[in-house]
Structures are given as structure tokens and as C-alpha cells.
Amino acid sequence: MPGLTIIGSGHHVPGEPVTNDDLSRVMDTSDEWIRPRSGIGQRHFAREGQGVSELALPAAQRALESAGLSAQDVDYIIFGTMTPDYILPGSGGLLGAKLGLEGVPALDIRQQCAFFPFAVQVADALTMAGVAETILIVGANAHAGFMPWDWDALWSGEKSDADAYQFATQHRATAVLFGDGAGAVVCRPHPKKDEGFGVLGTVCRTDGNRHDHFFVPAGGFRHYRYWDVPVDERIPSMRGRELFKCAVQRLPAVVKELCDKVGVTLDDVDWFVAHQANDRINAAVVQSLGVPMEKVPSNIAHYGNTSDATIPILIDEMRRAGTVEEGQLVCFFGLGAGLNWGAALMRL
Questions:
Q1: Which residues contact 123 (CB under 8 A, 6 or more apart)?
Q2: Closest by Cα among 207, 185, 297 to 253
Q3: Helices 279-289 and 240-262, interaxial angle, to 10°?
Q4: Distance CA 309, CA 300 (A)
Q5: Rounded to two decimals, what is the model's pTM?
Q6: In DSSP terms, which residues pair with 77 in a beta bridge?
């Protein structure tokens, strides 16, 4: 039975934007190199000591404000990040504490760039089971800790020394894609759920055989001294071509499977809100689906890939701009590390 819908949204990005030209001072790259490959023109980065729960707090507060609720109305938090404040505990509880909540369950899930469809699936199940009514879904990332360049040079406006410049350049294909930020939505069962509003359905998939398509070699407990690893292993390893192929094959398939499952056509969908990984990937997915580009909004040029945060940031911008309207059918979809991929259909 359909039910859960978004009643509030908010987002937050830290500091001033870091442009592609800024990155050209700390590695061998340029706007002409980055933009055609990804669609990205700028991104934001957290400062030293700024964790994802801190980025998530203003996003959550804005989402609650737009819903006309207070933090005390929240009875469940679902938090997604690939860059937690600590290895343990999870960041959802830290956000709950910052919101002044005590005793409210906080569930951290690790689906990375596919976070939002999975979170919607979990939240919908929680409400149907009568476990929760008002759920705060938050995706946040501070990828700055992964970045390979000289931060002092970047923030000061100077050029890196030769060794730092060369090291960063070795990792530029991955490093230029990511940015930091947080997006949040507040969800509740729709009062007209019996009339086809709210979540119509979800389809989520995982394939751990392809975990090495995007992962961080360091930090795991396969080693006694998990913190004592070469610097290279602290930077994400990405098999870009294989990841591209998986996204272009699996995302159209899961969207079509979901539409068939709930009995709607692609033409019935008003908006396809995709994870903002790369404009080239999304263009190829759209071409495979055969839907108009006008139905597939993009903001990657302004933020880069904020992983778990991309879809909630984008839906917040759409809601605040009045782009998405009540009664419209929205399909959320994404693929991320794991591999995890999925789609969710919601009539707002």
C-alpha cells in the first residue's frame, strides 16, 4: 500500500566553492579537462575537524523547518555516509544528539551513492510496520579527508610544491569528481495514501562480487593495525570504465523493472531524479531509457559528487524552486559502491 512521502527538505554545503581552476594549482588539471568528462565546474569541501554530523545538522534543521516540525517530532533517523565522523559509532546518533534528541533510534546504512532508494525502502517499511511515523532521512559526506592534494596550498591560493603536485596528479581522475555536503528530507505517511500518493514501490539490489569497482583499501579490520597503511591506500580506488558500464546497464534495467512492478510507464513519470555521479553516466542512462532530458534535472556542475547527499540536495532545490509539484510522480535512482543500486517511485 502506498504511503510515505516527503513533507520537508533541506541541504547544506560548507564554505566557498572550489573551482576547477582552483584545483589546477594543486594538480595537473583544468576546467577544460574536468568539465567535459564529468559536467563538474565546482564543489565544496569541509574544513579540518568538520565531520559529516556537523554538515548534516543545518540540512536537517532546514528540512524540519520546511516541514513545519521541530526536532522533537522526529521518531527515527536514517543516516547515509561513506565518510563517517568516526569508524564507530555511527554518525546518525551524533546528528540526533546535535538535534537534542535522546532515545530516538538512528540507523546508519552504507549504500553510498545508492543511499536514497535504499533509505526510502527502509523508511517505508518502518512506517508500514508501525515502528515510526516521522522519519528524518539524511545523506552527508566529507570527502575532503580522501583528497590527495596539499590543503595548505589550496586554501592559501598558492601552488603546490613539485612532489605534492605530482602525487595529487596521480589520483586526479577520482579526486576531481567529489565534493562535500549534506541533504535531508522529512518523511511521513501521506494522508491520501489510499488514493495512490506516497511510495508506490522500490527495487534495490546489491552485488558484492564487484566491491572492488569502487572501494578504499585502507581502514579495514583485515589488518591488526588498521590505521597504519600507505597513503595511497587511503584514497578511493575506482575502476572507472567498469563502473560506467555497470551504471549504464543496471540503472535503466532497475527503473524499468520498478515501473513494470507498480504498473506505470516511463511516460507517466514526471521527474527522474538521479544520483549525481557524472553527467556522462546520466546522459547514457537517459538515452537507454528513452526519456526526455528535460525530465532529468542536474546540479552536479555546482556540487560535484556528494555521494549519499546528491539526491536529497537535488530534491530540496527542486522543491524550493517550485519545480516539483504535489501529485507529480518522481523516480529516484542511483548506483554506488558495494555495488549497490536501486530505484524508488513516489507520488508527492
A1: 4, 76, 78, 132, 135, 137, 187
A2: 207
A3: 40
A4: 11
A5: 0.96
A6: 106, 136
